[in-house]
Design a protein that fits this description.
heterodimer, A: mainly alpha, two-stranded antiparallel sheet, 24 helices, B: mainly alpha, 7 helices, 0% strand, globular
């Protein structure tokens, strides 16, 4: 446990140092990134050792806060979530050093780096805190430090808006969590977040699970609580988006898992609810990933989808646990956990790739990109690799986790009682639809951004980013490839976490690995085929060079083709949005050409989230109208405000003294 | 706990009345300063001379008894404030209100589930009455400088409670001392000087221009 505390202290110290050095941006960045890497390395070694089969560790530190204590503990589940925090955190820090320097435009970089280091430290504490107060403090620090990073470009109005949305969402979430922990404390008599063996009353258990689902689901981005996610991920600097999407939202999943472990195992209804919620989230996320105009918003919606898939796996594991079907449980658990790690690598890579695009062109607008693969071949290819992985296509690692989910669902359909096959079959269908749409979404992103001709002068002048940035992307790319050829090794690495999530005998983990062997072999064969194919194609191209005539892409025989003749990103998205219900379709305004000599024509489309537009904004506007009636209280006189406070204190004191003080 | 505690607390209560009842700003500041210094003595008496209590006492006397009144007087001089209190509610009704608050505090303290060594002591009621007085000064006095004084009185009330808990919960007392610094820097530095510069007046009632 000491290593973890050292890691956290190194991170915090580095953050403070970076903040002190904020007058020298280059130095502050180097110091911030270096300490982030150093602290993360210490933490990663610790997490790997804990996963490697060490007995759960626990440490208590006295903390002079009423009812508070710092109790840290690390079991297999904590270590499982801890490891990607540190690994991705370190890689993204290396990338972010050059990225932030480029995006700074004279801004101070000390505070962003301090926030980054604190973000990593607080995520580590969230994954290991075993006391409600310490957990809430770490959780709040995590939200606030990531908020500081999200609002890095606060001079832009849409970034400020994203910051507001994120801040409000984070605090609504923490309110639900506070209620959950107070309830936990009131029913069990302790604020320690450790299973007490205390039999919770059924009502309290239900309320705890629902509150945790609301609070943690908000962080995880479960439908319909996902609305902050695309805004914040698009606004944040890209390496921060990678960390938020790759690991921070997963801590929401961790919270749900931890809470169900605390209340003594999941009831079957909760598992079914998670399964359904995960499917809805996945479908919703992927549908919106197919038609965003903003590259990073599309990736963020894809994160919503992937968290949905993870939650499907968690739901399957819990369902298997609750109904006594170990195969279902262990396959679902392994699928969910494998997808957590894989998604950290591949979505990290995709966001860093999007960052390379922003770095090179200064825009995330797909309608202004194009032809980037030719101008930035290495980072473009790495982005493409990440995209293939996130799309869940073999031979990359995204496919493996999804395959385990399919296996789990099929097992559920075959082995269940009467009526069960129908539900599972439906789920398999939904999962397939998600896979198809994800493939479509990433084919669109890659073909619009990387292929074709540049749609703007900025895209035409694109260039490779710095070696540090390319290098950190390459490391993630290698991780994706490794995850695809050796999934069995990964599953063995976190076997203890799978076993405790699924609540099965440790030997069951061997079955999962056996089930994965053919996938690993098939991936190796596919990789060999791919590499051989590329080599052959390169050879053919070299032979053919100088023989045929080179034509403009999309030239179609025109003498002077323009880049505007290509498919637009919007046009490509029509493939997916065409069949959507009208309410969730992107908002479109068309001025059609009229008459024989049409003078003006126009087309505007806006990608708003329909849940934000039709639910939250309406409800909040209604509330704001109601509250406007209380404006007379707001007189702007300080003395009156003090009087309000005084009256509230008097009222509270009177109330308690009338009511008596009850128990101790 | 020494038997001299209760007389000292009575002095604190009497100073409440003095702060509310006087019409001269200098007298208000002197009253607040004296109350702060008395609190330092109180910390010594309650814990009969442990190292921690000596430190707290010294810090309190320095901060509340010397530094804060010095800054308040300096602010008066530099902003050339008129030397009257200018209350919203006149002195006699204010005094009556403090009397009611003190009485209510005693009545309320009796209903509190206190630790046995605090039952019958004036510690808790004096604390509540001082907090109430602070609120009263904050709510009914017009000038920024009296606002600062009112805040200090309120904080003194919190401090009285904290002194009783000094060894059980030193963290709270430390936070209380930090709060003093907060008053010194925030209220004095920002509010008084800025208000004076922006509005050419230190009448906080005019701050209502700032509301949305």
């Amino acid at each position: 446990m000491k290593e973890l505390i050292v890691a956290v202290l190194v991170l915090v110290a580095g953050g403070v140092l970076a903040a002190l050095l904020s007058r020298w941006p280059r130095l502050a960045s180097t110091v911030g990134a270096t300490t982030a890497v150093a602290g993360s390395t210490i933490g990663a070694v610790f997490a790997a050792r804990m996963l490697g089969g060490q007995a759960p560790a626990r440490v208590e530190i006295a903390w002079n806060v009423p009812a508070g204590a710092i109790v840290l503990g690390c079991d297999a589940v904590s270590a499982f979530f801890l490891l990607p925090v540190f690994v991705l955190g370190a890689i993204a820090a290396v990338y972010g050093r050059d990225y932030l320097l480029h995006e700074a435009h004279g801004k101070s970089l000390g505070v962003p780096w301090a926030a980054y280091c604190v973000l990593l430290a607080s995520m580590a504490l969230v994954a290991t805190a075993r006391h409600a107060i310490a957990f809430l403090v770490a959780w709040e620090l995590m939200s606030l430090s990531s908020w500081v990073l999200v609002t890095f470009e606060h001079e832009r109005a849409e970034v400020r808006r994203a910051g507001w949305v994120y801040l409000i969402a984070a605090h609504v979430g923490v309110a639900a969590l506070t209620a959950a922990f107070l309830l936990w404390g009131a029913t069990t008599g302790t604020l320690l977040l450790e299973s007490t063996g205390f039999a919770l009353p059924a009502n309290a258990r239900t309320a705890l699970l629902l509150l945790a689902l609301a609070g943690f689901g908000l962080k995880a981005g479960l439908f319909p609580l996902h609305v902050w996610l695309p805004e914040a991920h698009a606004a944040a600097p890209s390496h921060v988006s990678a960390v938020m999407s790759g690991v921070m939202v997963k801590l929401g999943v961790y919270g749900i898992v931890r809470m169900t472990m605390l209340v003594g195992g999941p009831p079957a209804w909760f598992a079914r609810a998670l399964l359904l919620l995960g499917l809805v989230t996945a479908i919703y996320g992927v549908v919106f990933a197919t038609h965003q105009r903003d590259l990073k918003r599309a990736l963020a919606y894809s994160s919503v989808e992937n968290v949905g898939l993870v939650v499907v796996g968690v739901g399957l594991a819990m369902l298997g646990h609750a109904t006594g079907r170990p195969t279902l449980a262990v396959l679902g658990a392994a699928g969910a956990l494998l997808h957590v790690w894989n998604h950290a690598a591949m979505k990290g890579l995709a966001f860093l790739g999007a960052g390379a695009v922003v770095h090179a062109t200064g825009t995330r607008d797909l309608e202004r990109l194009g032809g980037l693969l030719r101008r930035m071949p290495v980072s473009g290819a790495l982005f493409g690799l990440g995209a293939v992985a996130v799309a869940g296509l073999p031979p990359l690692n995204g496919f493996v986790g999804e395959w385990l989910l399919y296996r789990s669902l099929i097992d559920g359909a075959i082995g269940g009682g009467a009526g069960a096959p129908l539900g599972f079959t439906f789920a398999i269908g939904a999962l397939s639809a998600v896979g198809v749409l994800a493939a479509l979404a990433f084919v669109r992103l890659c073909s619009i951004a990387l292929l074709g001709a540049p749609r703007s002068p900025e895209a035409a002048k694109a260039h490779e980013p710095t070696p540090l940035m390319v290098g950190s992307m390459a490391v993630l790319g290698l991780a994706c490839i490794a995850g695809s050829v050796a999934p069995g090794a990964l599953v063995r690495a976190f076997g203890a976490a799978t076993v405790s999530l699924a609540g099965v005998a440790p030997a069951m983990n061997g079955d999962v690995r056996a089930a994965l062997v053919p996938i690993g072999v098939a991936d190796v064969i596919l990789w060999i085929t791919c590499v051989a194919g590329v080599l052959v194609a390169a050879r053919v191209a070299r032979r053919a060079r100088g023989r045929g005539a080179e034509q403009e892409t999309w030239g179609c025989g025109y003498a002077a083709p323009t880049a505007r003749m290509q498919y637009t990103a919007r046009g490509f998205a029509e493939l997916a949005t065409g069949f959507l219900p009208r309410r969730v379709q992107p908002h479109v305004e068309i001025a059609r050409p009229r008459g024989l000599f049409p003078a003006r024509a126009g087309f505007v489309s806006r990608d708003e989230d329909p849940v934000t537009r039709d639910v939250y904004e309406r409800v909040l506007e209604g509330l704001a109208d109601r509250f406007a009636r209380l404006r007379w209280l707001q007189q702007g006189v300080v003395h009156l405000y003090v009087l309000y406070v005084f009256l509230a204190v008097v009222a509270a004191l009177t109330w308690v003294s009338m009511r008596g003080w009850g128990g101790p | 706990m020494s038997s001299a505690v209760d007389p000292v607390l009575v002095l604190v209560l009497l100073l409440n009345f003095y702060v509310v009842g006087t019409s001269r700003l200098h007298a208000v500041i002197n009253g607040v300063a004296l109350q702060g210094a008395v609190l330092g003595v109180l910390a010594l008496l309650v814990h009969s001379g442990s190292v921690l209590s000596v430190l707290v006492a010294l810090a309190t006397i320095l901060l509340k008894g010397l530094l804060m009144p010095m800054m308040l007087r300096r602010a008066m001089r530099e902003a050339s404030i008129r030397r009257e209190v200018e209350p919203f509610i006149d002195y006699v009704p204010s005094l009556l209100a403090v009397a009611v608050a003190t009485g209510a505090s005693f009545a309320f303290a009796r209903r509190l589930p206190l630790a046995p060594q605090h039952v019958g002591s004036l510690l808790v009621p004096a604390s509540l009455a001082t907090v109430g007085t602070g609120f009263l000064v904050l709510a009914t006095r017009r000038k920024a400088i009296t606002q600062a004084a009112g805040y200090v009185v309120l904080e003194n009330g919190v401090f009285v409670l904290g002194v009783g808990l000094l060894e059980a919960m030193p963290f709270l007392v430390e936070v209380g001392v930090l709060l003093d610094l907060f008053v010194a820097i925030f209220v004095m530095g920002i509010i008084i000087y800025q208000v004076n510069r922006e509005f050419a007046s230190l009448d906080t009632a005019r701050l209502s221009n700032l509301k949305e």
